[in-house]
Amino acid sequence: MDKNDCKYRKYIELLKKELVPAMGCTEPIAIAYGAARAREVLGGLPAHTKIAVSRNIVKNVKSVVIPNTNGLKGIDAAAAAGIVAGRADKELEVISAVPGDKKREIKEYLAANTIEVETQEGDLLFDIQIEMCKGEDQVKLRITRSHTNIVYIEKNGKVLLENSCEEAKEKEDGVDLLTVKDIVDFAECADLEELAAYIEPQIQCNYAIAQEGIRGTYGANIGKVLLNSQEDTVQNRAKAMAAAGSDARMSGCELPVVILTGSGNQGIAAAVPVIVYAEEMGSSREELIRAVAVSDLITIHQRSRIGKLSAYCGAVNAGCASGTGIAYLQGGRFPEIAHTIVNSLAVVSGMICDGAKPSCAAKIAVSVEAGILGYHMYLQGQEFRGGDGIVTKGVDETIYNVGQLGKDGMRETDKKIVDIMMGCVSKE
């Protein structure tokens, strides 16, 4: 791929856009960010706050620990953290630096003030609407489609910012140029330092939280379980370290993660297994950076067909993509990578997303296992062929099929998952 090609610049821009640091699970952090920004506009702590969120936000906030809150969970807690201690200028690191007295104040604020939460219906899977009042002053703020995309701010009836949801949708476009062959070509020719600017923070941050997950006690400790129950192989360490990063992150670990397609778990799953293999192989810095770029862009390629929020588990996309990064490290190029992704997606596509929580770590481990299996199948001359279930001829065509499954086919599944999680399903 020529560096003057529009595709080349687009791929660089995609990495720049998607690889951003975040402290904590991104949906509650988006609420904290919106609440912090609304408080700034209001000019003080609100006496009353009302938050309306789409059902998928409920799903991804309900069970995850919010960092720097002394173990709090929930939409109201995320909003309180942003109101009391948030710095909106830090965006997805809005509550990354909270002193001990502020942590106590978050809990006290929750007890003394009203934060109403309601679920809203509609076509938008990602929608957060916040209303705050203090005395005679009132602020309204809305975030749609992505975690920091504020589309509306109003104070005392005066509109300060307004972007239509359709304009927000257009900002998400630009992934239509992605193909697996072009991704491999791009990784081969991309300027190393330009790549490193976005990939190296991901390598450093996400491997650090994986190491912390192994050292500490978080969630169900899936990473430790894998290390203690299976043989000490590079394949098992790759699964375990990726899972450990999620163990820590889902349980409120106060370390940053570089997210991918809006998800810290996907940022971890796409990079950490590749890092483990690179360490085992003694790979160079350049080889690791280019291999992680392959994994990242193939994750983006898959998720762009599904969307950031779905009933389809994003760990599948990133875990399977990690197998392509491992293949690249070992000298694989388009044939190896294409077969790896098709083989792995044939195994784990359809795993549901039932929100952010400790079991995400186990789903990452299973998906990384599928990615590695997909590559090993190719090495041994084995493959799943077009017509085997949703697999069709051509890797991009198979990715398209999986996208249709995740975006359209699982729409009703998504609604049912949220109903179950909210206790809205009758046992009769």
TrEMBL record:
<dbReference type="InterPro" id="IPR021144">
    <property type="entry name" value="UPF0597"/>
</dbReference>
<dbReference type="GO" id="GO:0019450">
    <property type="term" value="P:L-cysteine catabolic process to pyruvate"/>
</dbReference>
<dbReference type="GO" id="GO:0080146">
    <property type="term" value="F:L-cysteine desulfhydrase activity"/>
</dbReference>
<dbReference type="InterPro" id="IPR005130">
    <property type="entry name" value="Ser_deHydtase-like_asu"/>
</dbReference>
<feature type="domain" description="Serine dehydratase-like alpha subunit">
    <location>
        <begin position="166"/>
        <end position="418"/>
    </location>
</feature>
<protein>
    <recommendedName>
        <fullName>UPF0597 protein SAMN02745158_02654</fullName>
    </recommendedName>
</protein>
<comment type="similarity">
    <text>Belongs to the UPF0597 family.</text>
</comment>
<dbReference type="Pfam" id="PF03313">
    <property type="entry name" value="SDH_alpha"/>
</dbReference>
